[in-house]
Amino acid sequence: MTEASRLIFRHRFSTRLWHWINVITVIVLLMSGLTIFNAHPRLYWGHYGANFDPAWLELPRFPGWATIPSMYNLALARKWHLAFAWIFAFGLLFYMVRSVWNGHFRKDVALSSSEVAPSHLWDDVKKHARLDFHSEDARYNPLQKITYSLVLFVILPAVILTGLTMSPAMNAAWPWLVELFGGRQSARSIHFICAGGIVVFIVVHLLLVVLAGPINEMRSMITGWFKVKGKAL
Amino acid sequence: MTVTRRNLLAGGALGLLAGCDQLGANPSFQSLLGLAEKGNFHIQRALSDRMALAKEFRPDQRSPIFRANGTREPPGPAYAAHKAANFANWRLKVDGLVARPQSISIAQLRAMPQRAQITRHDCVEGWSAIGKWTGVPLKLMLDAAGLMPTARYIVFHCADMMPGEAPYYESIDLVDAHHPQTIMAWALNDEPLPVGNGAPVRLRVERQLGYKHAKYVERIEAVATLDALHGGKGGYWEDRADYEWYAGI
Fold first, then answer.
1. Distance CA A8, CA A220 (A)
2. Is the pLDDT of residue B9 over 60?
3. What was the pLDDT predicted at A1?
4. Of residues B37 and B115, more confidently modeled
5. CA angle B157-B158-B159, nearest 5°?
6. Is B88 part of a structural domain of the chain?
7. Which of the listed residues A46, A192, B27, B225 has the most CB atoms within 10 Å of its CB?
8. Do residues B12 and B65 share a domain?
């Protein structure tokens, strides 16, 4: 018995293009970032922080398979990182402008008041716990919208802005920015925490893609077309 | 199906890693990455006021210990003799494309107009330390020497040379050389500069990373181009490890 299904157009070109550009840039940024972190694998709060100051986090150096380049080379890692940061930052900017312009945020990402009602959210949590990802209209569910909003409007802007504050010249030009994060070493810590948040997002995202039906999900992110249950209209 | 796909992804990830190393070693890809470096320099200069000051902190915001990094003490008998004499015979020369070459003792340096600033030192490795620096604005020294119109860069020649290696040197452009916080510092936290931090005199160029802040400076040279100096990239780490010449980021 085959269930009736139909294809609906789910992802616009700008969304799909940005997604696949990010697959490359975010991986390069994360891995070159780990090389930069390896140069001084300690994190502090406040304006200063060096070897004699107490670190809130001290990690062993990340192994070569997780870094770009695979051998420790801070100068080359910085070149990778600072070049791909441009693609990443302007990619986000263009995507955001396009998504406001074409209504993507308003129609697909913004949460309605009924969606944030505790009972609705709880239903969605239970649905996720049952690994039930089927929907009739391929619209994002509330947990998905909350996650995407957190990533789009909090983590990604924060990782870019804290990245800017690593620059002593930018700190002289825009002194308010580094103050906003509580000092350069706090900003460096937040930069690392945001990068960790992005890694968690990627892992959960890939897991859910596999659980929800990888072929359908991949097709929709490549061609835009997503298969849903139900008869053709 | 998912298994093969996953294998494909894993294989792809390994391929990506090897590919990144190959790309990173490729000269044309390196020059592509270098474009971003030049872009960073020009955009930062375009976005910011050339005279924008680095933040200056309160005395109680200083690091309890200002760590020394890089050379802790230049090797060799010449520096040891200077250190034994408390740097009384040290001379800071200003020459190159200048009208009136100078040779300044540390005592003379301390008698010149001073600037004191409590600033944050940011190492390329990621750590920061805050300390108070006292010294003579570089602009005053360059004005005294009279820069020629052909001078484009200021080079700092240092006494730290590890056996068998090229001497440490650094360079900045005239925008940074004329910046009010760019000083030739002889004191850290109101004490004469410790040997580990560059005694008797070092550069402070507050809007750039730590490796630009040349220690143990013996000679300030005005030049038209950096090409003829050592490796031609304008600094020890730039020549040796391909660090960016512009270290504002």
1. 9
2. no
3. 42
4. B115
5. 140
6. yes
7. A192
8. no
Q: Are residues B116 and B190 in the same domain?
A: yes
**Who among A166, A173, A185 is closest to B48 (CB)?**
A173
Residue B184's beta-bridge partner residues? Answer: B136, B203
Number of domains in chain A: 1
The complex's ipTM works out to 0.91
CATH number at residue A64: 1.20.950.20
CA distance A14 to chain B (A): 24
Q: Rounded to a whole number, what is the distance in Å from the CA of B12 to chain A's nearest CA?
A: 12
Are B124 and B6 within one domain?
no
- The answer, yes or no, to whether residue B18 has pLDDT greater than 80, is no
pLDDT the model gives residue A42: 98
Note whether B37 contacts A79, CB cutoff 8 Å. yes
Query: What would the two tokens of residue A216 be?
Result: 């359908």
Segments forming the whole domain that contains residue B80 = 51-241
The reply to whether B246 falls in a domain is: no
Q: What is the pLDDT of residues B121-135, one digit of tens each?
A: 999 999 999 999 999
Same domain for B159 and B187, yes or no, is yes
A33 close contact with B: CB closer than 8 A: no
Say what the pLDDT of residue B36 is.
87
- How many Cβ atoms sit within 10 Å of the Cβ of residue B196? 16
Closest CA to A216 of A203, A202, A229, A204: A229
Q: What pLDDT is recorded for position B30?
A: 86
First to last CA, chain A: 21
A25: nearest Cα among A114, A92, A88, A97 = A88
Number of structural domains chain B divides into: 2
Flag residues of chain A having pLDDT under 50: 1
Residues of B in contact with A171 (CB under 8 A): 54-55, 207
Size of interface A-B (CB pairs under 8 A): 145
Q: Which residues of B touch A172 (CB under 8 A)?
A: 48, 52-55, 206-207
Range of the domain at A62: 5-229
- Judging contacts by C-beta atoms under 8 Å, the chain A residues touching residue B54 are 168, 171-172
Q: What is the CATH number of the domain that holds B158?
A: 3.90.420.10
Note whether residue B97 is domain-resident. Answer: yes
B71 and B25 share one domain: no
Interchain contact, B54 vs A86, CB within 8 Å = no
- B146 pLDDT band (50/70/90 cuts)? very high
List chain B residues with CB under 8 Å of A34. none
Q: What percent of chain A has pLDDT over 90?
A: 72
Interface test with A, best of B33, B53, B117, B128 (most A CBs within 10 A): B128
- Residues B200, B139 within the same domain: yes
CA distance B166 to A75: 19
* B37 contacts in chain A (CB < 8 Å): 79, 82-83
Work out whether strand B169-173 and strand B102-105 pair parallel, antiparallel, or are unpaired: unpaired
In a domain, B99, yes or no: yes
**Per-residue pLDDT reduced to its tens digit, A119-169:** 888 988 888 888 887 766 778 888 999 999 999 999 999 999 999 999 999
Q: Note whether B19 and B116 are same-domain residues.
A: no
Task: Tell if the CB–CB gap between B24 and A74 is shorter than 8 Å.
Answer: no
- B8 and B83 within one domain: no
